[in-house]
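thought: fold this chain, then report.
action: predict
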Amino acid sequence: MIILLHKKNKVVEVIDSNSNLTLEILESNPTKALFVLASKYNNSIICWAHYNYKNSINIKKIKSFFFNTNTIVSTGNKNYLSNAIGYVEDSVFINVNKTVKYPTWLMHSNCGAIYANNLLKFKPLIKVNQDFTYNLNSIAKLGINNGLYCYASPGIIKNQGVKPSFKTASKFKLFQFVKEHYKARWVFLLFINFLIHERKILILPFLKSFLYKRKHFNNLITSENKIKKLEINETVSVIIPTIGRATYLYNVLKDLALQTLKPKEVIIIEQNNNEVLKTELNYLKTENWPFKIIHKLISQTGACNARNIALDLVSSNYTFFADDDIRFNKNILNNAIHFMHGQGHDAITLSCLRENEIEKQKTSIQWNSFGSGCSIVKSNVIRNLKFNMAFEHGFGEDTDFGMQLRNNGVDIIYLPSVQLKHLKAPVGGFRKKHIHEWEKQDIIPKPSPTIMLFLLKYKTKQQLKSYKLTLFLKYYKKQTIKNPITYFKNYKKRWALSKVWAEQLNNSNF
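observation:
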């Protein structure tokens, strides 16, 4: 590993961690120096660190991130782009949990690392005279949607010691970054958010941003699978909540029976809220299946409760969260778990598209969500996790479960090459209309309280404010109140009601 030490935006020293020798380099600009080192040592990990941390770099920890070469990692206490970036981006990558390994493209110059060959792919788009930390954030932001796994991790520095001074981006740099990395409309929304929420009129940064063009990075960043053959002792539990879809579920079981990697067990939680509790799944006993079937028939409906019951029954190394209306080929379990095993991932979501949809993603990426009907997770990382019952009969239980994983240091990878077909069955399912108490009121909350609950739990203040503004603008066309002032007053009431109901959900004892 090659370590570049910098101070006051100048290169101070370069060290080869293997030999502990100081390497000569003529370049004093940190960004230029990184590219020079990457060209010379193109099969090495290139690390950067502030000079204050010279003796605190956790080399072993940094190397552990490069089981896959398509990785960038850094650590730091402050966000270079400030929390205002939340006005622009609504993703889960912004509100970073700094106590664990967390997926984020927000990079820091205190300490970090990237594989040399991958760093060089960004060279044509990086302005070397730009601020060093700006460039690190630019590389990660451009790469995260193209296969670069981006992380923040507190463990790559052993002890903080004397913290170096750190300068956050100016408003000019913030607007420039947004213009170079997002669609142009977000520059306008950033300006409006500052105007409304911070009462700042940032005319000059706004206008100057239009001197810059958006950057487009089209290279795919991949990593070779380290494992050529899957170990024969890997076991899989499949959990399927179901209601009113006997025929569809039968086809799912038939697809599972044909798998080259057979499940150890299939856990089916059948719900039936009729007056007489009776199963519709007689074929579970009348036919022979090449795996153990655990069947529970319950009267309480709801996907969260059903999946929680199933999670308590899992006894395998891996858990496949499956819908009851999907179809798939015989190799999906083998291919998915081979990918996880070979690249060191604990959680993946598979491609799950409808009949005429086409998968556009070309390589695996860090995922902004979690599919509760199309994901595979190592069972040991979900041993103490549950689907939050506050989301029952609403929307957001899967994204909430994904956030529980991330806040426990587990990243979720989207794997487009392993594909399921989602039939979207017209009968049964868990989205049967459930009338919530808030839907019986004269004024209906907006957004849905379950969505509001997710926002309050996991978004930054800036993300929440931006969501409120964009929803206000989008919803105006879809509703009947056309007087802007009346609409504004009505929207404020509905937003406030949504927060009240969300707090009640959060405090409920389920």
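thought: worth noting. The CA atoms of residues 351 and 419 lie 5 Å apart.
final: tokens above.
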